[in-house]
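Supplementary notes for students who missed Thursday's class. We covered one full example, reproduced here. Read the sequence, then the structure, then the short commentary at the end.
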Amino acid sequence: MTYDVDRAEILSFVGNDAQVQALAASPDGKVLAAGLGNDGSIRLISIETGELLETIWPAHDNWVQVLAFSPDGEILASGGDDSRIILWDVATRKIFKELYRASDWIWGMAFSPDGRRLIAGFNAEYGFRIWNTTSWELQNTIDGDQAADLAFSPDGSKFVTAGGGIHEANLWDARTGQQLFNLREAPGWVWAVAYDPKGKYVASGGIGEVVILWDVTTGKPIRELYTGADFVQALAFSPDGTKLVSAGAQVFIWDMTQP
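Structure (token representation):
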């Protein structure tokens, strides 16, 4: 479904027997990429009309776990349970490059805001790999956590990760790989994170009844948003930072302009 968040109305709906595991919107807001769990395909859908534009099949040999568009919209990166990271040429919908094969499935992935780096986290490797997107050479390997989810800061200098199966998120220096803060006060397993577009705080959520906002300068919690008994599996800020969306059994839209 595509929603108008101001009016809380459904704009379009695409439904079938597919199990959607990953979503990513193109930078121009026109195309939604959906990664499926039951057939390893990627569906490209018009955000405005809900029309199915293309099915890339097979994209992966197993579940498509994560998708990320490059900031210029030219490349779609996908990671799956088949342990592969694949780069797709969006214009041709063909494989541009198979970037990496891990020891287990790919969990988190994001391009830096300037598009010069791609970072990925893994289920079994307990660390992150960062590639230079000009040469696609490995730029850095950072020891860390399982990274069920991750997100860059707006200036690309930091990134936040969801521990995945542990009660914490972590904030990292993207250039040095130094851990800046361990966000330990999460009440349950942390599965989703998001970075405020203004760079002031990060949000974390997972198994529990609360989404927590953390101050990135102190690593301390500054606000709690109660979802009720839920499993928050995804978080996203609006581009202007005035809204935060949490998705699980229910979808909540939070007003970030209120204290």
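Commentary. The chain has two domains: 1-104, 144-259. Confidence is low (pLDDT under 50) at residues 1-5, 7-15. If anything here is unclear, bring it to office hours.
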